[in-house]
Design brief:
By secondary structure, the chain is mainly α. It has one domain. Helix 5 crosses helix 7. It contains 7 helices and no strands.
């Protein structure tokens, strides 16, 4: 198997991802590529965020749920190094063809990508509890 076949074979199937003729190319890319790659990388994304929180003195753990959600949103939107790291974790699992599609509209696709990552981190928020030494 070549790289493309290996990448595609490793991705989870997302039954809820719908495809129809009227959908935009961005929406198609989101459902065909972004969602499966992000789902595949879920455990790594959680660990990367946990490391991010710990590097920032663990203040996240003392926040209310609402403030933790704000913290996740701010980290993804405002910390450019962190955002670029997340993008790399996802883009690195694109096929060459997918990457070529991605670069034609990377700005809009990055927004979709970060929204999905943010939703995943928020939906797993219970996993981010203070690590007791």
């Amino acid at each position: 198997m070549n790289r493309t076949e290996n990448l595609l074979a490793s991705r989870p199937v997302i039954p809820s991802a719908k495809f129809h003729d009227a959908m935009s190319s961005d929406e198609r890319f989101q459902n065909a590529t972004l969602r499966p790659v992000i789902k595949l990388q879920n455990d790594l994304l959680i660990e990367v965020f946990r490391n991010y929180v710990n590097k920032h003195k663990g203040a996240f753990y003392d926040l209310s749920i609402e403030k933790q959600i704000d913290y996740i949103e701010n980290a993804i939107q405002k910390d450019i190094k962190f955002r670029n790291s997340l993008k790399g974790i996802i883009i690195g699992l694109f096929t060459v063809h997918e990457y070529q599609n991605y670069i034609t509209n990377s700005s809009a696709l990055n927004k979709r990508m970060m929204t999905i990552v943010k939703e995943r981190l928020i939906s797993n928020i219970q996993l981010f509890e203070a690590q007791l030494a």
